[in-house]
Specification:
Elements (H helix, E strand, L loop, with lengths): L9 H8 L12 E6 L5 H16 L4 E6 L2 H18 L3 E5 L4 E6 L2 E9 L6 H4 L6 E5 L6 H9 L7 E6 L7 H7 L7 E6 L9 H10 L2 H7 L21 E2 L8 E7 L6 E9 L2 E10 L1 H4 L5 H12 L4 E6 L4 H10 L4 E3 L4 H13 L3 E4 L3 H7 L19 H12 L18 E2 L1
Parallel strand pairs: 1-7, 1-8, 2-5, 2-6, 3-16, 6-7, 9-15, 10-13, 12-15, 13-14
Antiparallel strand pairs: 3-4, 4-5, 10-11, 11-12
Helix pairs in contact: 1-2, 2-3, 10-11, 12-14
Length: 423
């Protein structure tokens, strides 16, 4: 749903003008914004960051960072470019170098794009000298990358810009930056969905229905809370399951969580009408069955589960190197190592279940059983489920986080696109 914005909320105006000479916060070294999803913090922060850069500097280097460059382009760069163009800026992207050149009048500044997805990412930003940095979704980035980005801001007058949705209250960014924002000399602003005037009541209600438990408290209420209790407390048979026979699937996938001593789980998925149905499964628990199976025997069960269907790909536990190789040698299926971000994956499965994008057949008794038993580990000090009753849960998570269908979203706030150049 696209809407043109016509005004900013008071909280957004604070983000836009905190660095003004007339502002009581102009001497702060940075700004931290956290809170609910779709609360309007990202667009106004990006706009403020660019305006400040041109007010203070010319022919200077800046960085805009996200978890990945792809997500950064989708969530930050694409929405802000038409806004800047409408304001009279000229924007040119050099895609191969991940640089955005922005000009206004006789001034031009360079904005480098960086992804901070893991510990190795800190090496990507080493060496550059920056006049300012903006870290979008900083809570998803490792501490080492964030520290390196901050260290790059050595130009006199440089400032730091952070935004994120809440995570676990033990998270390093919450403890070291939000709780110590005064010590860090940073302005801290907390956002709710009511701070985004572009959202309709219907959209706000849509997000309230989309989350539950700790994810509701974090992404709707904007709280830094611990996850506890059941991972999927909302799961109900008859709502998230189905019993009828369905045919006419357009494509099929199989997902796999590998185990020898621990249980092994396969799930067959078919797509129809934008919904992915878990049609059937194979689940082997060597402890309860009293015998272990080899990779070759597991491969035979995989072939049997496919039952002659054209399988687009098998999405496999990325640590299962021997079984991945066994599938490849078999020559029947394309194999894809799964993405394995547990907390993110659980959130995406929650969204897929609550939005009706995945359904579980009533014959998948082990998946249904695990949904009723899968719990958070309250002693972990971070978002982590207990390592029990989690094997069908893992194969479902691998499917949802790896298949591109579930890596989509929508922007509740955008502006007309008028000029954008690439080379």
């Amino acid at each position: 749903m696209n809407r043109e914005f016509t005004s900013f909320s008071p909280k957004q105006m604070q983000v836009l003008n905190w660095w003004f000479e007339e502002s009581a916060h102009k001497d702060k070294i940075g700004i931290i914004c956290d809170g609910a999803v779709r609360s309007g913090k990202t667009l106004c922060m990006t706009l403020s960051f660019v305006l400040w850069a041109f007010y203070r500097f010319s022919d200077s280097d800046f960085a805009i960072c996200g978890k990945t460059v792809t997500s950064l382009r989708r969530n930050v760069i694409t929405p802000i470019i038409p806004v800047l163009v409408d304001m009279g800026f000229s924007v040119t992207e050099k895609l191969s170098a991940n640089i955005v050149y922005i000009s206004f009048g006789n001034r031009t500044n360079r904005f480098y794009l960086f992804g901070g997805k893991d510990e190795s990412s800190s090496a990507l930003i080493q060496g550059i000298t920056l006049s300012g940095v903006m870290l979008d979704e900083v809570a998803l980035m490792p501490k080492s990358f964030t520290q390196q980005a901050i260290a790059r801001c050595s130009v006199d007058g440089s400032k730091l810009w952070f935004n994120c949705n809440p995570e676990n209250p033990h998270h390093w960014f919450y403890k070291e930056w939000i709780q110590k924002c005064s010590d860090k000399n940073c302005l801290y602003l907390h956002f709710t969905m009511n701070d985004n005037p572009s959202l309709t009541d219907e959209i706000r209600e849509r997000y309230r229905r989309l989350y539950s438990g700790a994810f509701y408290e974090r992404f709707v209420e904007g709280k830094w809370v611990c996850a506890d209790g059941l991972v999927y407390p909302f799961f109900k048979e008859g709502v998230h399951t189905y019993t009828e026979a369905i045919d006419g699937f357009s494509q099929y996938y199989i997902s796999c969580d590998y185990g020898t001593v621990n249980p092994f789980s396969l799930g067959l998925w078919g797509e129809k009408g934008g919904v992915w149905y878990r049609i059937s499964e194979f689940y082997h628990d060597s402890k309860s069955k009293g015998f272990q199976m080899t990779d070759s025997e597991y491969y035979e069960r995989l072939v049997a589960l496919a039952y002659g269907r054209k399988i687009t790909a098998v999405i496999v536990d990325p640590s299962a190197a021997s079984f991945i190789e066994c599938i490849r040698r078999g020559g029947k299926f394309k194999v894809i190592p799964a993405k394995n971000d547990v907390a993110y994956g659980i959130r995406k499965v929650s969204e897929a279940l609550k939005s009706g994008k995945i359904k579980i057949h009533s014959s998948c008794i082990d998946a249904i059983r695990e949904f009723s038993l899968y719990r958070w580990d309250e002693s972990a000090g971070k978002d982590a489920p207990k390592k029990e009753n989690d094997h069908a849960m893992d194969d479902i998570r691998y499917f949802v986080t790896t298949h591109k269908t579930f890596d989509s979203g929508f922007f509740a706030l955008s502006a007309p696109r008028t000029e954008r150049r690439k080379f």
